[in-house]
């Protein structure tokens, strides 16, 4: 389905512009991701080769030695890039209407949500079904604690720590530890 400018809703989505999640192209992409997630989430811990193959099909990039413990959920999968040696624990939700890049050797706790999807602040645009996305980047060797939520547009620098249950609304500098809602630099010594 093309808009008045000739671009499809998928093209607008990938550009981070307002789009509507309608049409055969996005529906097919979503069904593809759903099929692969269901297959992945049905695997057992002894099926590492099968898990790796499914993730390779689902994701935009999967580095070597990546571990994602099911259940795992995403919108499309192809906008997710996972660096070598990254570990994602049970129940992760990565809403990838645009890019999610996670660097090498990251540790991501249970039930973490990384959400690129956003909605217009204008209620009339929301009523019409518009949404958008802003990419998220997580650097290398980052630890994100259980239940943390990373919101659209956030960049987390290398070696940073995000405390469990934190809601990250702003960029996190390299090496920083942030905690709370909204996440702020921690003053507690480790």
UniProtKB/TrEMBL annotation:
Task: Give start and end of each Maltose/galactoside acetyltransferase domain.
Answer: 10-64
Q: Which InterPro entries does this chain map to?
A: Hexapep, Hexapep_transf_CS, Hexapeptide_acetyltransf, Mac_dom, Trimer_LpxA-like_sf
Any idea which UniProt keywords this protein has? Acyltransferase, Plasmid, Repeat, Transferase
Which CDD domains does the entry link to? LbH_MAT_GAT (cd03357)
Q: Which Pfam families match?
A: Hexapep, Mac
Please state which protein family the record places this protein in: Belongs to the transferase hexapeptide repeat family.
Q: List the protein's name.
A: Sugar O-acetyltransferase
The species this protein was found in: Skermanella cutis
């Amino acid at each position: 389905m093309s808009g008045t400018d000739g671009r499809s809703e998928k093209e607008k989505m990938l550009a981070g512009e307002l789009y509507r999640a309608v049409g055969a192209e996005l529906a097919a992409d979503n069904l593809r991701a759903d099929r692969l997630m269901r297959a992945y989430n049905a695997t057992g811990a002894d099926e590492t080769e099968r898990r790796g193959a499914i993730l390779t099909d689902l994701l935009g990039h999967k580095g070597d030695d990546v571990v994602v413990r099911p259940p795992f959920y995403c919108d499309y999968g192809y906008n997710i890039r996972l660096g070598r040696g990254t570990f994602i624990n049970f129940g992760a939700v990565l809403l990838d209407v645009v890019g999610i890049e996670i660097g090498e050797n990251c540790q991501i706790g249970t039930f973490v949500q990384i959400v690129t999807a956003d909605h217009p602040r204008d209620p009339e645009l929301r009523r019409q079904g518009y949404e958008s996305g802003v990419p998220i980047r997580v650097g290398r060797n980052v630890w994100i604690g259980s239940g943390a939520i990373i919101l659209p547009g956030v960049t987390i620098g290398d070696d940073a720590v995000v405390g469990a249950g934190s809601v990250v609304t702003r960029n996190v500098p390299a090496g920083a530890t942030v905690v709370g809602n909204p996440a702020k630099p921690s003053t507690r010594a480790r």
